Amino acid sequence: MDKSLQDNMPIYMQIMDNVRKSIASGELKPGMRVASVRELAGEFEVNPNTMQRALNELEREGLLISERTSGRFVTEDVELIRKLRMQMANEAAKRFQKEMSVLGYSKNEMTDFFLKGLDDYEQTIEAS
User: Is pTM beyond 0.90 here?
Assistant: First the structure.
């Protein structure tokens, strides 16, 4: 999980985004226990109250489930996780399209650029 934080948005929201990405990518798997508030606060180097707020919000979204005596766990609702993953992919695609438009790329040029990047990525994977 990426634990670097920026100054451009509230810390608790950045933590939420990091946890969401970890869930969507499968780094945090359905049903997996999440570290305690104190442990995570130490890892992120934030106040435990900030971490508590982030985790509480993720519970409200249904991504984390709290079990009183056992701690917090990633939801086992795979459909919710699939929707999260799709939402995050759509947001990434919109950012890509917006940035490429600013640079003057047409839709066809964006597609070619993206497909070339995929080819390059696949070649890198095969070479390693």
Answer: no
